[in-house]
Every structure is written in structure tokens, then in C-alpha cells.
Amino acid sequence: MVAVSVLQYLLQVVSLVIVGHLGTLPLSSVAIATSLTNVTGFSLLSGMVGGLETLCGQAYGAKEYKKLGTYTYSAIITLLILCPPICLLWFFMDRFLVFAGQDEAIAHQARDFSMWLIPGLFGAAILKPTTRFLQTQSVIFPMLLSSSLVLCFHVVACWTLVYKLGIGYVGAAMAISFSTWLNVLLLACYVRLSPVCERTRGDLTGEAFRGVKQFFRLGISSALMVCLKWWSMELLILLSGLLSNPKLETSVLSICLSISTLHFTVPYGLGAAVRF
Asked: What does the pLDDT read at residue 263?
């Protein structure tokens, strides 16, 4: 799980590295956008999906294998329901950033970047529960393989979109969205076709929709813990945009925090392995 966590986080790091060669304005804009989308979107999804640890762990321990699939569907439905309000917030990101005192050029580019992350948000709403579904069963190698393939694809896609096609910093957001959905498709194919998941995958039924309320109740508590920890770091990048030279300050801080967060994914992966 350490390798899986690191590989998945490297998508964001690779994007920052590639955009960094475009200059301080694109890098600072992407850094601000990444921070705000993490704070308002991806951290919420990561926190909510923690509810599956309780539900899937109990079901797997009690040998009620079909419930794993049902609970996972409930999680996916819940996270997909949360996505539209998050997208609405991202749509007005530039106004929020300008109101908060951020540089206007950074705010407008950050909003453009966020718009192209919206497909990736919906992909993450499916990917995160699917990952927990496999984690509960200690099915790690398929996630390691898919994450490795996706990272290789992402490096090529990001470089092609940003430089070869001349799309610029927005191409990095497109690459993240493409890569997220590729990971979803690879894992979905494995879950559907592999005999390992035959007894647990189940089908989408009315029970999954009825379980949304239960999952939401558990997910909120988990989300609060994850979000408060995540927000404390991302807030630093947002505050750096208020300094005298926001383009330079934000760029430098985003690089430092990205590297430090990469280190944190190692104990996070070890913790996930211990839980399951």
C-alpha cells in the first residue's frame, strides 16, 4: 500500500514539475488551484470514504461478502452526489480568490485549471471507494500494477498536452482527469472480470441506495478528521498568495509542501496495510 499511495500522489507532483517549466505565474496558479480543490473537494472525498473501513471491515470479518459490493456502491453513490455542489464552488473559484485578496491573474488561471479537474473529481468519487473495496480484501497487487501504468501514462500525457499540443498549464489538469479515469477503468475491469472478487463484487441494487444514509453518517465523522489535518497544510499555500510576491512565494511553498506530503504517504500506506 505504500507504493500504491506514493504512485497515486505522484500524479499531482508530476503535474507541478511539468507546469513549473512554464514560469512562476502558471506554477503559482496551479499550486493555488490544487490547494483549493484539495481543500474543498478531494480531501472531502478521501475523508468520506473512510466510512468504508468500518462497514467493509465488519462485513468481511463476518463473511457477508456480498455486502462489500453493496457498501462500495453506497459509497460511490454518496460521493457522486457530493460532486455537483463542489463543482459549483470551483466554478466561482476566481471570485472567491480575488475576494480573499489573491492576485487576479493567479485567481483566473486557478479557476481555469480547476474547471478541467472536474472530470477527475467524478473519477475520484469512484476510484477511492474501489480502492478501499480491494484494500479490505488485501488485494494489493492489481492496484500497484494499475497505479504504475497510470503514472507512466500520466507523464507522457501531461508532457504532450502541456508542451507538444501547446495547451499549457490547463493540459496538466486534463492529464490528471484522464489518468484518474484510466485508473478507474483498469480497476473496474479487474473487479468485474477477476475470480478473486467474484464473491464480493455484487450488483447495483436498491439496497445500495438505501445504504447511502448509513454511509453518510459514518463518512462525516471520518471526513472531519481527515479534512482538518489536510486543510492545515493546504491553508499555508493559500496564505502565501497574500505575500508581497505571490507568484514566487506560492511557487516555492507549493514545491516544498508537495515534497513533504510525498514523504507522508509512506506512513499513510503502512497504516492502511496495518488496518487491513
From this structure: 57
The 10s digit of each residue's pLDDT in 108-134 is: 999 999 999 999 999 999 999 999 999
Count of residues for the chain?
276
pTM beyond 0.85: the answer is yes
pLDDT digits (tens, 9 = 90+) for 237-250: 667 667 767 666 66
Q: How far apart are CA 170 and CA 139, in angstroms?
A: 35
Q: Cα 156 from chain centroid? A: 20
Are 181 and 121 spatial neighbours (Cβ–Cβ below 8 Å)?
Answer: no
CA distance 174 to 267: 29
What are the DSSP calls for 144-166, one per residue? HHHHHHHHHHHHHHHHIIIIIS-
Angstrom distance (rounded) from CA 113 to CA 94: 11
**Phi, psi dihedral angles at 144 (to 5 degrees):** -65, -45
Backbone phi, psi, residue 92, to 5°? -105, 20
Cβ–Cβ < 8 Å for 106, 25: yes
Opening angle at CA 241, ends 236 and 243, nearest 5: 100
Domain boundaries, the chain: 2-275
